[in-house]
Amino acid sequence: MRFLRSLVPLKEGLPLLLIFGGGGAISLWIGFWRLGVLLFGLFAFFLLFFRNPKRIPPEGSGLVLSPADGKVIRIEEEVFPFFGEGKLISIFMSVFDVHVNRSPMDCVVKRTEHKGGRFLPAYKEEAPLQNERNFIFLESQEGMPFVLVQVAGILARRILCRVKPGQSLKRGEILGAILFGSRVDLYMPKEVRLLVGLGERVKAGESVIGVLEGGDEENK
């Protein structure tokens, strides 16, 4: 039952599901069995891809949650051009991962900015600089700046952003998605202590990837 609930799709995937599901049913009904099986196979693939499982964010102050499902492929601490001194964590989402992006903390959206670009494989180091990407500038309840960057990949040709400037977000709330394999970069203040390492797998809205100084994890 829990698995079936996890297959509830994003609304953006409903048109494709209706096309392939309806086409498969009609094909089987009129006797085109091979076409029907093919269309139902595509229906199953897109149902899995657009799945939007329920996530329950952990309790605690100062926690920074993963904004995406996938594998941590980069961790840096330096001065970034548009952010200043801080920390960066990059999460690569394969085509098999959940592609819903979630807010890493209770925050306010300050602004968003979309930039066109190429469609290099999202795991490449130059992808965040050359690929199509969407910047979401956030401010935490503590007044700390965060920047979440949705980066398109070689298959990802559509970035979904559901938030607008001035909008308040709860920890773990959906803020967008990237279709067909992609990457999310999260820029954080230097005051965040990271709790994950390279190669670890994380889940959006559930995995704690860091904590602000003075937060609950710091006090344990």
Model description:
The protein has 220 residues and is an alpha+beta fold. It has two domains: 2-49, no CATH class; 63-215, Glucose Permease (Domain IIA) (Distorted Sandwich). The chain has helices at 2-6, 14-29, 33-49, 127-130, and strands at 63-65, 70-80, 84-93, 100-102, 107-115, 133-140, 145-152, 159-161, 168-169, 174-178, 182-189, 192-194, 201-202, 208-212. The strands form three sheets. Strands 9-5-6-7-11-3-2-13 form an eight-stranded antiparallel beta sheet, with no helix packed on it. A three-stranded antiparallel beta sheet has the order 1-14-12, with no helix packed on it. It has a three-stranded antiparallel beta sheet with strand order 4-10-8, with no helix packed on it. A hairpin with a 3-residue loop joins strand 2 and strand 3. Helix 2 (14-29) runs antiparallel to helix 3. It is elongated and about 65 Å long. The chain starts with a helix and ends in an 8-residue tail after the last strand.
